[in-house]
Specification:
alpha/beta
């Protein structure tokens, strides 16, 4: 699994002109799933991301966690995180998992984040989404379970 994690002041998702999710201060997580991913990786990724100290404390140091700041989470499925641009000018997405694999792992990841007590909103899997965010910092990380 691969995630792009951004600290935000706010974020939202709109589908067909209708806002379906929004959060205040917290984390916007773009989540990609590949063929070999497992529930164990979803557990590892949720544990890592929900516990990261990526918010500034009173001294300007990244020392506060999502829990410390009372933050929320917005998770958006993003198959393009497994895009390959090595050949030609058009990316291919063969490494991205098909929906029958990706959806259960995406839903498992979301459930694990909720189980940790956070307010978690989601995009709509497979939909064309307008994702808006007001970045806090900006502070963005790429986290891959293959590297944890």
């Amino acid at each position: 699994m691969r995630a792009v994690l951004t600290c935000v002041k706010s974020a939202s998702v709109t589908v067909d002109g209708r806002e379906i999710a929004n959060i205040g201060k917290g984390l916007l997580i773009l989540l990609g799933v590949t063929h070999e991913d497992t529930e164990a990786q979803a557990v590892k990724l949720a544990d890592k991301l929900m516990g990261l100290r990526v918010f500034e404390d009173e001294n300007g140091k990244m020392n506060r966690s999502l829990e410390d700041v009372g933050g929320e989470v917005l998770v958006v499925s993003q198959f393009t995180l497994y895009g390959n641009c090595r050949k030609g000018r058009r990316p291919e997405f063969l490494a991205a998992a098909r929906p029958e694999v990706a959806v259960p792992l995406y839903e498992k990841f979301v459930a694990l984040c909720r189980d940790k007590g956070f307010r978690v909103q989601t995009g709509e899997f497979g939909a064309y989404m307008d994702v808006a965010s007001v970045n806090d910092g900006p502070m963005t990380l790429i986290v891959d379970t293959d590297l944890l």
